[in-house]
Specification:
two-stranded antiparallel sheet; globular; 2 domains
């Protein structure tokens, strides 16, 4: 098992396909093994920020820290599988502050150009593309649920909201959101709705969704509702009353978006001229 965990800790998305093919066999060996592998992969997806084209003095130290982090994760998971330690927590991703997309602006000639502010660069970042591949292959889209899925939702709820601009204005367009991660994560949230109580449903589902800027909210709502509808229609989703309550909360937020207001104005103009 140790070698399996070490491979997963590389975080290489190409390896995820091999693990997914053996997912059932791994579950038969030990039901805790698949999620231990996924946690190691998430640790491996936390990468050092280095410049291969312009090496910096601290690059090697950052690489060494990443290797040490992966080894600690493997050791913790192996000790847990051997019954010598408690099951580790899901590794939190480094903070990801979304930036608003800059609009093209040509200043007048007479105004001097203002210097660009210095942007602080975090030493590590989450490779959300790799993490999305691992998560998608360990959570097949047939609607099945496992007891560890809500833990994933709770751990990465804040990170997902922040990366999609929860701290920005409602009219902001997010520059470089985690597009590969978003549909996989919101599909997982929809799958966990039936497992969350009302307080957790609001904290880890409705609030993160409705706090996003308009464009990001519409994209996330589409991913979430598509999965929620599939689960509801196949009898694997929440009750009818909870499904209606979720839609009512999302519709209330939808009515505040600029896109909805423009559409409503267009329809009013059509009715006036008809």
């Amino acid at each position: 098992m140790l070698g399996i965990l070490e491979l997963a800790a590389r975080g290489d998305p190409a390896l995820a396909h091999g693990f997914a093919a053996a997912r059932d066999a791994l579950n038969q060996i030990d039901p805790k093994l698949p999620r231990a592998i996924l946690r190691c992969a998430f640790n491996g997806a936390i990468r050092p920020r280095v410049r291969n084209y312009d090496p910096q003095p601290n690059d090697e130290a950052r690489r060494a820290d990443a290797v040490a982090r992966a080894k600690r994760a493997v050791d913790s998971e192996f000790a847990s599988l051997c019954g010598k330690a408690d099951e580790p927590q899901w590794p939190p991703f480094p903070e990801s502050q979304a930036r608003p997309r800059e609009r093209l602006y040509i200043p007048p000639r007479e105004l001097p150009e203002e210097p660009n502010p210095v942007k602080l660069v975090e030493p590590i970042y989450a490779d959300h593309q790799a993490a999305a591949v691992w998560l998608s292959l360990f959570t097949p889209g047939d609607g099945t649920r496992t007891n560890w899925m809500p833990d994933v939702v709770e751990t990465y709820s804040s990170w997902t909201a922040e990366a999609n601009g929860a701290a920005l204005d409602t009219c902001a367009e997010v520059d470089d959101p985690p597009r590969e991660w978003n549909p996989i994560y919101w599909r997982l949230v929809a799958r966990c709705v039936a497992l969350l109580d009302d307080a957790k449903l609001d904290r880890f589902c409705l609030h993160p969704l409705t706090s996003l800027p308009d464009e990001a909210f519409l994209d996330a709502m589409s991913d979430f509702l598509r999965s929620l509808d599939f689960l509801y229609l196949t009898g694997k989703g929440p009750t009818t009353a909870r499904t209606v309550a979720i839609r009512a909360a999302l519709v209330e937020r939808l009515r505040t978006t600029q896109q909805f207001k423009r559409l409503a104005w267009s329809y009013r103009q059509i009715l006036v001229t008809a």
